[in-house]
Amino acid sequence: MILENRIAAFIRLGDKLRNMPPEERKALANAASAQNPWFDEENVSCAFNGITRILDEQYLREWLYPYKLHHIQPKKVGVVMAGNIPLVGFHDFLSVLVSGHYLLAKRSSTDEVLITRLAQMLIEIEPAFAEYIRFEERLNEADAIIATGSDNTSRYFEYYFASRPHIIRKNRTSLGILTGHEEKDDLKALGQDIFRYYGLGCRNVSKVFVPEGYTFDKFFEANKDCHTLLDHHKYQNNYDYNKSILLVNRVEHFDNGFMLVTKSEQLVSPISVLFYETFTSHVDLRQKLAAVKEKTQCVVAAHGWLEGSIPFGEAQCPMPWDFADGVDTIQFLRKL
Q1: Against a cut of 0.85, is the pTM above it?
Q2: Which structural domains are found in the chain, ordered by start?
């Protein structure tokens, strides 16, 4: 299959997702939610919207053009997919197939429904993909590996796949920067970076850096509509549990009724909790960010004012060239 056919098939997949009838999208979301209760209809729909953005023809061609993928020697690429948010493994799915390789995918047990359906749709569009896509439990046949997991599982991956070319991703999280000068719309957009997917993604903001003396009143007011998070029983359970832990341990915190904010030097906060840390100057802030760069997926700031940051509200809207952990997947695949 030539490159142009591969690209054209994915463009058509984006069109099909964009024009999917509401009842079909709802049925898919219900099936996914039955397997993983965190995958509710709103978040599945958000994941689909993110994929259609990646598969926009202009973005897709602009992304792939520099790599010269016309003469790839196909290899079997094993992909160990995460399942923390809906379709989190799609970018690897796309990268392997559009570059001309065979995909051997180990699906997450918590996200099998959606990626399987997208594979079916892609094969309906371009039947030649049928011989390029296999879902496997073991990746013994793979010539190369792309694996996403926790810091603990990454050590296993590094050992098990040491003899093969590989990309091994570890735990990362995302950070927000507040100065106290943000408008209500800015703070509301930051709320989306925090609360989308219930905070389960590596691109979710789990910690913010704030100037000394900062108060969260305006942030809480801007995001008061997000109290509907408590309608999800698993989120409610996490909120109740984490609140009780903070109270029992007498940890100073802020509580707006559905979210807990507490000071911590740690990066990854539990569900329903936002960590914060103060800074004294821009120099101090940059030093703190540099110290955790290897554990940071992205940094958000109002209108992207800080060099290297992206605007509030865009953490969960990556472009195709926004590679996880900053590792260029296409370059890795091109060189196999």
Answers
A1: yes
A2: 3-171 (3.40.605.10), 173-311 (3.40.309.10)
